[in-house]
Amino acid sequence: MNKQSIKLSVDAVVFGYEEGIISVLLIKRKYEPFKGKWAIPGGFVLNDETLECAVERELQEETGIKINYLEQLYSFGDPERDPRGRIVSIAYFGLVRPNAFKIFASTDASEVEWFNIKELPELSFDHENILDLAIKRLQGKITYEPIGFELLDKKFPFSDLEKLYVTLLGRDIDRRNFRKKIISFNVLDELNEKVSKGSGRPANLFQFNKKRYFQLKKEGIIFEI
Amino acid sequence: MNKQSIKLSVDAVVFGYEEGIISVLLIKRKYEPFKGKWAIPGGFVLNDETLECAVERELQEETGIKINYLEQLYSFGDPERDPRGRIVSIAYFGLVRPNAFKIFASTDASEVEWFNIKELPELSFDHENILDLAIKRLQGKITYEPIGFELLDKKFPFSDLEKLYVTLLGRDIDRRNFRKKIISFNVLDELNEKVSKGSGRPANLFQFNKKRYFQLKKEGIIFEI
DNA sequence: GCAAAAGTGTTTACTCTACACCCATGA
DNA sequence: TCATGGGTGTAGAGTAAACACTTTTGC
Predict the structure, then answer these.
(1) Which residues form the Nudix hydrolase domain (chains A, B) (predicted)?
(2) Is it the case that residue B104 has pLDDT exceeding 80?
């Protein structure tokens, strides 16, 4: 019917957060094109795997990371986006918890590194566009879906959550109002555990109750910062 | 490097609105698989065209329609979604104005028809999922972006806009509050033209000022119903 | 006992909601 | 003059924003 010679790849923008810094996972390309340049991890989709499997496989192969949250971001199909020919890429958007920060390089990557999203290197292909879009999505989405918790440890002090939002939204937050609002959504369980950060009063730990969130969402309750 | 045999297609969910009814454009398939069944218009992407061009070309070929608003919806890549083999489809979401309702069938389509989204026929492939997602997107998006105007005539009475929102949101709206809110966004120009709908007081016509909207959006003003 | 971070309520401004009558036209 | 849809304001409720002191711990 037609002689299509388009290839399909997936790319994954993976974000991590720690100590007031949002980082993105990049690899240094081992082969041409853009050999030695930084890029978003990704690769070709195999004939029999789902797109999500392809993303997870490529991330595993290139960086060894285990992803905590994954969603489709956007598909990039400009005919000129890849010098090797027509390669359409379906980009994904992933989040990992701080303890998943251990990474290693292999297959197509000579190095893997976390980059502060405010100090990014030059990127290969159209990956700068992809990353820009992913950052916008992250910033937008944390205001109307509780995905911020996927960037924190399972048990976290309230101040960590607050600092994450301050970092992502780029503006100050009133501690009392923020706490009131989050608590009012009724999706956090307060634990009987405390954690001390060196100095100051130890903080109570909280845990995001995903089951309760989905229950409330079904009932029409809306999460909005 | 790899022997990928994935094909890439685009599909377009096109919505139209008239008289309190949201319709979607479907084609009846002329060939196997699913010959004689209804489907969302779409087809394979050519090697050298952008994805948007592919969508517009397929819509032109199959239905003759001119689209007014187009955005990417989601990419569907389940290996089993098409009995012909591995076909990944990038779905788009389009809106047309009422006067674009004239359609004709050709190429892959034996018939083209507008279906009320509340009275849909059985669909081919995974098109029911695609359509469901598109409907959710439409319903969600009109509450935070002014895309509803793309479904109305360029000049429209306020009551048309209100009826559109009532239809899409599936709940009643207070006429005074709705008008106040929309007016307060300052993206409508009130024209010195009136239109009469047979009986009753003639309504003033309004026009969406897209340029002003983008200006205000840049300044951080948020459209939200 | 002091430095550092955690925790907590109240008042005020603003936004959203509910609600009913008059207006302009065609038949 | 009546039927039909268009156009308009205000009061009360609810939500969001501003704001400062006390508590608990480590050193």
Answers:
(1) 5-139
(2) no
- Domain spanning A8-141: which CATH class is it, in words? alpha beta
CA–centroid distance for A60 within its chain: 15
CATH architecture observed for domain B154-218:
Orthogonal Bundle (1.10)
87-126 in B: which are within 8 Å (CB) of A?
88, 90
Q: What is the pLDDT of residue B224?
A: 96
Is the pTM here over 0.85, yes or no? yes
CATH number of this structure's domain A155-218, picked from the four choices 2.40.50.140, 1.10.10.10, 1.25.40.390, 3.30.70.250 = 1.10.10.10
Q: What is the pLDDT of residue A2?
A: 56
Clarify whether B111 is annotated catalytic: yes
Domain spans in chain A, listed from the N-terminal domain onward: 8-141, 155-218
What percent of chain B has pLDDT above 90?
92
A6 close to B (CB below 8 A): yes
**Chain B interface includes A220 (CB < 8 A):** no
Q: Give me the residue from A49, A51, A75 closest to B72, CB to CB.
A: A75
Do the first three CATH levels of B7-141 and B154-218 match, i.e. the same topology? no
Among A residues 139-198, those touching chain B with beta carbons less than 8 Å apart: none
Residue nearest to nucleotide C9 (CA to C1'): A176
Minimum mean pLDDT range among A1-5, A83-87, B6-10, B183-187: A1-5
Domain topology for B7-141? Nucleoside Triphosphate Pyrophosphohydrolase (3.90.79)
When CB atoms are compared, the residue of B2, B44, B77 closest to A44 is B2
Answer whether residue B2 shows pLDDT above 60: no
Q: Please indicate if any CB of chain B lies within 8 Å of the CB of A217.
A: no
